[in-house]
Amino acid sequence: MKTGYHHGNLRQALVEASLALITEHGPTGFTLSEAAKAAGVTPAAVYRHFAGRNELIAEVARQGFDIFAALMEFAYSGGQPTALAAFESTGRAYLAFARRYPGHYQAMFESGLNLNDHPDLAMVAAKARGVLERAAEALSLYMPPAKRPPSTMFSAHIWAMSHGVVELFMRGNGAKSPFSPEDLLETGIGIYLRGLGLLPPDQ
User: What is the pTM of this model?
Assistant: First the structure.
């Protein structure tokens, strides 16, 4: 079905076609010509909007980070009663995003894009990271100043843990667990926060 020109937005049609291809084949598993064919246009038409496949993937990733940042912001500031609840909510939002937007997620984190080559992408990615850093900073205020880790390190640990749960236990990459991804992440965050002294040992 040719949809590229039908709704008058070829650029977005190419993004949507790429999302379907990414979900099926991964972010490096298709060519620009295949994206054009899926959008119902000629390869030459693609170059009026994107200089190459990496630029197309970067736009998919940019849109993904925009959605991701909005979800993280809502999770953080959406009426959570405590700094701890808000922090844990951002972790759950990470898993929810990966489950609901698998094509965007793969473009963002598995395409091998260099953010320095795509300033617009780098800017929105930093916005998403900033939400988690603010959540980490707010929670770390409950620690004595001398024992507070930098908020960027604190948030990076949780980001890495969230990413690991997604890659190993949610996207079918080989590892199996009798526990849900949400339970795995919540338990991991709890262990981490207890190690920092932010949770009592029996919580």
Answer: 0.85
